[in-house]
Design goal:
Elements (H helix, E strand, L loop, with lengths): L1 H12 L7 E11 L8 E5 L4 E3 L7 H14 L3 E6 L16 E10 L7 H6 L8 E8 L10 E4 L13 H14 L3 E7 L2 E10 L4 E5 L5 H11 L2 E5 L7 H6 L2 E3 L13 E5 L4 H14 L3 E4 L3 H9 L12 E2 L11 H16 L17
Parallel strand pairs: 10-11, 10-13, 11-12, 13-14, 14-15
Antiparallel strand pairs: 1-2, 1-5, 2-3, 4-5, 6-7, 6-9, 8-9
Helix pairs in contact: 5-9
């Protein structure tokens, strides 16, 4: 979501009477790729771009193809194949070793339904959104790049004259998997390829504590583009925490904090009684993740004083919080905790990639 916010900010800062623009989007990936489906790069006719579709190996060519899309005022689809040692393929020798399909779409600022405006509607969403996009169709068809934003409400689904029963099946499957889906289907009598993109809302991080190590957590979460709420004593928190956090609340206001399935909570007050009183409150809210600082014996002691809590079926609680990386400083501890949150939310174990069998993004 951080990248989408940057793209929207760049779009808003442009003088559209002087410059034109196009959007390059990763719409399919096979094997290895630095970026995944949904990576975007906004390109201005002057050659300035924001965002990215790879680790740097494709952006130069993507710039040229985006400017071509602007000049022709027509979308195009390009497959970058870096799996074989073909000297004619862009990206060979740069370590991608995958096939990356990119859609280049000119953006009309006078169209209120252009993709940038659709993305604007989701940046503050608290629930996932689905974006339907035609990523492949017969040559010269105006369907290429056609989009539609869906929310999670029930109702009729109409898009590009695709059978509604099929569309509903595609969207329900994507919501269930929480990953993008690509489907071959028909738009009227034309064979097309449809991308159903699953766009997560911004991660919300609730930090409970007011000691100096809170700032390291807030700094790193801000860099990730997460929204942070800090719960603690205001007089103990630095001005930087107030500047970077979405909100700062007192301990007694903890029960009022809104939580969804993309919320993580970290109890780091370093105060046994504070953590003991707030843990049941956040367990009842059922966020995606709850972590608590301190050794296991501290948690064991806390459970002995909270006999009504049944933790046997709570799979989203982590104590001690964080991955085992030998963290020592507040910054390293924050890195360890935030990495564990990402792993937990993506249903990953958080181990060494070199020990992983198969694809990284399998």
């Amino acid at each position: 979501m951080k990248e989408i916010r940057k793209i929207i900010a760049e779009y808003d800062a442009m003088d559209h009477s002087v410059e034109k623009l196009a959007l390059a989007s990763v719409v399919n990936v096979e094997a290895s790729s630095y970026r995944r489906i949904g990576a975007r790069m906004l390109v201005r006719s002057t050659g300035v771009w924001t965002g990215g579709i790879s680790g740097g190996c494709l952006e130069g060519d993507a710039l040229k193809r985006s400017q071509k899309a602007i000049f022709k005022n027509a979308a195009s689809n390009v497959v970058y194949d870096t799996m074989e040692d073909d000297k004619n393929q862009i990206g060979i020798g740069l370590g991608c070793n995958g096939r990356i399909e990119v859609l280049f779409t000119p953006i009309d600022p006078n169209d209120p339904d252009n993709e940038i405006e659709q993305l604007r509607k989701i940046i503050d969403a608290s629930e996932p959104k689905l974006l339907l996009k035609i990523i492949e169709c017969p040559e010269d068809s105006p369907l290429l790049g056609k989009i539609k934003l869906l929310d999670n409400t029930e109702g009729e689904i109409e898009f590009a004259k695709i059978n509604e029963t099929e569309l509903r099946q595609f969207t329900e499957e994507t919501r269930e998997r929480k990953k993008p889906g690509i489907y071959n289907c028909k738009s009227a009598d034309l064979e097309v390829k449809l991308l159903v993109e699953f766009i997560r809302p911004e991660t919300k991080l609730i930090i409970v504590g007011d000691n100096y190590d809170v700032l390291s957590m807030v700094n790193m979460a801000t860099e990730l583009g997460w929204k942070t709420t800090v719960i603690g004593k205001a007089k103990k928190l630095s001005k930087a925490v107030f500047a970077l956090s979405e909100q700062v609340l007192d301990y007694r206001e903890a029960s009022s904090v809104l939580v969804n399935e993309y919320t993580a909570v970290v109890l780091m007050s370093h105060d046994f009684n504070h953590d003991k009183s707030l843990l049941p409150i956040f367990l009842e809210k059922r966020p995606a993740y709850i972590g608590m600082l301190g050794p296991k014996k501290r948690f064991t002691k806390m459970m002995s004083q909270l006999p009504d809590l049944d933790m046997s079926k709570v799979d989203f609680f982590y104590s001690p919080t964080g991955l085992e990386i030998g963290a020592e400083s507040p910054e390293e501890i924050a890195l360890s905790i935030l990495a564990e949150i990402v792993a937990a939310m993506r249903n990953k174990k958080g181990g060494f990639l070199r020990e992983l069998e198969g694809s990284i993004h399998g």
